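Work Package 3 (structural annotation) set out to generate three-dimensional models for the target panel prioritized at the project kickoff. During this period the team completed the workflow that converts sequence records into discrete structure tokens, so that structures can be stored uniformly alongside our sequence database. As a representative example, we reproduce one entry of 76 residues exactly as it appears in the project archive.
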Amino acid sequence: MKDLVEVIAKALVDSPEEVVVTEKETEKGLVVEIKVAEDDKGKIIGKQGRIAKSIRSVVKAAASKDDKKVIVDILQ
């Protein structure tokens, strides 16, 4: 999942070299965290959170194939 989120995030931002995606396992499921440059936060979140919601939908669809629960967080 980390690779999928990283590819999507790098395609959306102006500074792809500053995109950091981490992955950790918790009792809730797999948590994927996205950290981007300060100027790129708006591009990852989108108007009214539409892009963030779309990223979560794509990851959820990919995770359903493996019967996993994946949570995508965008770090501030």
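The mean pLDDT is 94.
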